[in-house]
């Protein structure tokens, strides 16, 4: 009998994150996670879907009364979230969200977009899942600061294991590419920031000051927020 089963397009990354889920918080930067989610929290409201939730950082640092549902393609990441936070969690692919239409007020996606085979599909799915006027919040590594990838590789070779999880990704998105994804899928961008020029807790105050200067172009991350047009991407 012919086997017509096809793995999800992002299944390879599911396996990679399954392998590191139990130790993920120990081998990644807590400062990075805090700064990324902290930039998005002021724009979160209502019923929230955290797509690509990892180990559940959003629920750890946001208002515990917020209605957050976590989603990740890695079953082991989902177990970590369930055991560590007690918040609802769903295992699924962000390019085919297992949600009804128009049920969320906010969809959050932090450091997930560049793992997807077709990022545009996720934006369409987010739009479908959001109510009119709902918000899509994104953070992504900044291609203009891609030299950080070389720095991280060097630090790992020097034995500094907390210098970010080596996920194999070397190419990211520019601000304009992200803006285009928002615009083409019926979102109006209401916030765009570049974060973390100096990615260390000890330099936090200096880092925040640099983010308000032209040095911000070298920020490691881009944070963006968009509001769903009530007419949708097709007008």
CATH superfamily: Vaccinia Virus protein VP39
The largest sheet, given as strand count, sense and whether it forms a barrel, is: 7 strands, mixed
At CATH level 3, the topology is Rossmann fold
Overall morphology: globular
Number of strands: 7
Residue-averaged pLDDT, rounded? 84
> What is the beta-strand fraction?
15-25%
Widest sheet: strand ordering:
3-2-1-4-5-7-6
The CATH class assignment is Alpha Beta
CATH architecture: 3-Layer(aba) Sandwich
Unreliable segments of 5+ consecutive residues: 1-8
Our count of domains comes out at 1
The helical percent reads 25-40%
Spatial extent as radius of gyration: 17 Å
Q: What class would the helix/strand composition place it in?
A: alpha/beta
Number of helices: 9
Distance between the termini: 45 Å
Order of helices and strands: HHHEHEHEEHEHHEHE
């Amino acid at each position: 009998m012919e086997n017509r089963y096809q793995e999800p397009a992002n299944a390879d990354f599911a396996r990679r994150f399954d392998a590191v889920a139990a130790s993920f918080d120990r081998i990644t930067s807590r400062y990075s996670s805090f700064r990324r989610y902290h930039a998005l929290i002021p724009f979160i409201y209502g019923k929230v879907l955290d797509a690509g939730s990892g180990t559940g950082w959003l629920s750890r640092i946001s208002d515990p009364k917020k209605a957050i549902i976590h989603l990740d393609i890695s079953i082991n990441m989902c177990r970590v979230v369930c055991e560590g936070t007690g918040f609802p969690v769903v295992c699924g692919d962000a390019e085919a969200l297992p949600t009804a239409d128009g049920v969320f007020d906010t969809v959050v996606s932090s450091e997930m977009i560049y793992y997807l085979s077709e990022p545009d599909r996720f934006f369409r799915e987010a739009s479908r899942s959001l109510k009119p006027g709902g918000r899509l919040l994104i953070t992504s590594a900044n291609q203009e600061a891609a030299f950080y990838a070389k720095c991280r590789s060097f630090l790992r070779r020097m034995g500094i294991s907390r210098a970010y999880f080596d996920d194999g990704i070397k190419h990211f998105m520019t601000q304009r590419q992200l803006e285009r994804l928002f615009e083409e899928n019926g979102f109006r961008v209401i916030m765009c920031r570049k974060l973390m020029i100096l990615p260390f807790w000890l330099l936090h105050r200096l880092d925040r000051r640099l983010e308000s200067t032209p040095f911000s172009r070298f920020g490691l991350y881009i944070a963006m927020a968009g509001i769903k047009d009530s007419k949708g991407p097709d007008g």
